[in-house]
Amino acid sequence: MSEAMIRVRDVHKSYVRGRQQVEVLHGLTLDIPNGDFVALMGPSGSGKTTLLNLVGGLDRPTSGQIEVAGVRIDQLGSGQLARWRARNVGFVFQFYNLMPVLTAERNVELPLLLTGLSAAQRRKSVAVALEVVGLTDRARHKPKELSGGQEQRVAIARALVSDPTVLICDEPTGDLDRRTADEILGLLQVLNREHGKTIVMVTHDPKAAEFARRTLHLEKGQLLEQAA
Amino acid sequence: MTRLGFVIANLGRRKTRTILTLLSIVTAFLLFGLLQAVNVLFSAGADFVGATRLVTQARVSFTQPLPMRLLPQIESVSGVDQVMWAQWFGGVWQESTQLIVFATDPGRLEAVYPEFVMPADQWRAFRETRTSMIAGRALADQYGWKIGQKLPIGSNIFPQKDGSKSWTFDLVGVFDGKDEEWQRNTNLAYVNFAYFDEANQFGSGRAGTFTIKLADPDRAAEVALAIDTMFENSPDETKTQTERDFNIGFFKQIGDIGLIVRWILFAVFFTLLLVVGNTIAQSVRERIPELAILKTLGFSDGAVLGFVLAEAAALCVIGGIAGLGLATLAGTMVGGGNLPIAVDHRVWTAGLAAIVLLALAVGLLPALRASRLTIVDALAGR
Fold first, then answer.
1. Residue A29 · residue A204 · CB < 8 Å
2. Which among A208, B73, B94, B298 could bridge A203 via Cys, Cβ 3.0 to 4.6 Å?
C-alpha cells in the first residue's frame, strides 16, 4: 500500500435535530492508504455512517479537513462535489438501492450517463462490470427478478463501472444470509486485492470485518483503536 | 439507455396511474381543442374579414330595418367605394333546420364581397333570375343541393303577401371562398332582394344593414363618423362600425362565447392541475431514496430537477398532443355546415402553449423539491 488515499484531519460533525445540536464526530483524524480495505465498526450512533458519508462526499464536515485522492472535498461546492463523486467514488448500500424500473444492465449503465462515453462504449463497460460480479446471465432482469445477493452484485457492478478509486460500502451484507454475505465480501476482497480499489466498509458483523485488511472501531464519535 | 430513456422508464413505474393520468390530460386537451376552435370561430367571424368594410345598422338594433332612401346619402360620403344592403331572411330548411340566409342585391354582393368566388354565368343568373338564390359551398354540400334545383325555404320572420311562410327559390349558383378561411365560412345563402322585397308581407324598401366597401381602409373611422353624423337626430339614426365589430356584436347576442369558453377551460385546467400535480408530487414522494441515489451517483441538483420536470413534461406532451390530435379529428368530423369549426394552427399554437404551461405548473414544485433533497437525510428516510 502506498501513501494515504484518504486523509481526515480534526473533523467535527454536528447535526441539528429538533431544537438540539448533536455532535456526532469529535475531532476525528484518520489516514487510509491507497489500496486499503478498512472495516469501520462500532455501536449504533458511534458515527460510522457519518464518517462514511463525509469520506464519500455525501455530506460536509462542520469543521476539519477531508482529502480524498489529493482533493480537499470539504472545500468543494455542491456541483463540484457531485462531479467529484461521479468520477472518484462508488457506493454500495445495505438495501442495494437499485432503480426498480431498470434492468440490471441499465442500473449499471446509469452512472455512465454522466460521462462522455458513446452508447457502444457504455455497453462494453457494463458488460465488463457485470462479468466481474458474475452476473452476465442476469443482465436483462429487473431487480425484483433477482435474489438479494444478485441485487447486491448489481449494486457493486454499478459502483465499479466508472472505475472509481474508492468504494464506500455501508453495511453491504446487512440484509443477506451468511453464505451470500461471504460471497459478496469475497467479491469486495477480490476488488481490493486484484483491482486495487480502496474500500471503506461500515459493518456490525465481526465476520464481515475479517474480510478487511484492518478494522477501525469508533465509539461516541472518536476512533478507539486500530486492529490489524 | 439515454436520459430520455430513463425518464420514459420511470413513467412506466405505475402503469395504471400513468394511463389514468394520461387519459385525463387527453380528455382535457380534446375539450380544449374543440372549445378553442369554437372560440376561434366566433372571434374569427371577426378576424378574417379584415378592415375593408363597414356595416351600418339602425342605432337601436340591427333588427330594426333602415329605409332604402339612406342608400344614395351613404354612397355620397367621401371614402365610400361600394354599398351593399342585406336583410336577414331567417331561413328554415325542411321541418326546422335554421339556415343563415340574407336577401341582397346580387350585383352589389359581387362588388362588395370579392372574397366569394363563383363563375360569371352563375353571378349573371343570380342577377337576372327573379327568384334566384345562391348557396355557399359548405351549405350546398351539407344538404346536397345542386344548381337548377327549386328549393322550398321557409322564413320564420317574413311571410309572403298571401300569408304563406314557405318561399321557393331557384338555386342558380354555388359560391366558394377565396381561401381556406373564407371557404370555411360558406355556410350561408343569399336570395335575390328584388323578389323578396316585392313579395314579403311587411312592406318594401327596407334593409337590415348597409355594408360599405371602403375606398381606403385607413379612413374607416372617419367614414363611419361621417355616416352616423349625417343621420343624427333623424328618425333613422345609424350606428356604423367595422365589419369585425359588427360580427362580434352579432355573436354576442348568443352570449360572450369567449368568456364562457375561457371559464370552462379554466375549470378544466384547474382540475387537471390538481390531478396531474398530485400524481407527479406523489411519484416524487415515493421515490425520494431513488432520487437521493441519483445524486449519490453524481447527478447534480439541476439534473435531478430536469428528470422530474421531464417526466411531467412527457406526460403533458404525450397527453396534450394526443388530445389535440383527437380534437382535430373530431373537428373534421363535426365541422362544416352551420358550425364550421376547425382545430387549426391557431388552436394548436394555443394548445402547445397550454402544454408547456401545464408541464411547468405541475412539474416545477416537485422538481424543486427533488433537486433540494439532502442525500444523507433522504437515504436515512428523514
1. no
2. A208
CA-nearest residue to B380 within chain A is A49
- Is residue B103 included in any domain, yes or no? yes
* Residue spans of chain B under pLDDT 70: 42-51, 250-256, 335-340
d(CA B340, CA B15): 38
**Same domain, yes or no: B334 and B198:** no
pLDDT of residue A103: 94
Q: Which domain, by its residues, includes A181?
A: 35-58+77-227
Q: Evaluate whether residue A25 is within a structural domain.
A: no
Same domain, B151 and B8: no
Q: Do residues B221 and B265 share a domain?
A: no
- Both B87 and B223 in one domain: the answer is yes
B53 located within any domain: no
Question: Hey, are the CB atoms on A109 and B297 less than 8 Å from each other?
Answer: no
Q: Percent of chain B at pLDDT above 70?
A: 93
Question: What is the grid cell recorded at A136?
Answer: 452476465
Which among B9, B289, B376 is the nearest to A102, CB-wise?
Answer: B9
More confident of the two residues A200 and A220: A200
Tens of pLDDT, residues B17-66 = 889 999 999 999 998 898 888 877 766 555 555 668 999 999 888 788 89
In a shared domain, residues B188 and B294: no
> Interface of chain B against chain A, CB under 8 Å?
1-3, 6, 9-10, 12-13, 289-290, 293-302, 375-376, 379
- Beta pairing partners, B98: B92
The number of distinct structural domains making up chain A is: 1
Overall average pLDDT of the A152-180 stretch:
90
Contact B6 A113 (CB under 8 A): yes
Average pLDDT value for residue range A165-189: 89
Q: What is the pLDDT of residue A228?
A: 42
Of B12, B294, B375, the CB nearest to A58: B375
Residue A227: pLDDT band (50, 70, 90) is very low
Q: Categorize the per-residue pLDDT at A44 as very low, low, confident or very high, splitting at 50, 70 and 90.
A: confident
Expressed as residue numbers, the domain containing B17 is 3-45+256-379
Long-range CB pairs of A128-131 (<8 Å, 24+ gap) are: A128/A161, A129/A157, A129/A158, A129/A160, A129/A161, A130/A104, A130/A105, A130/A154, A130/A157
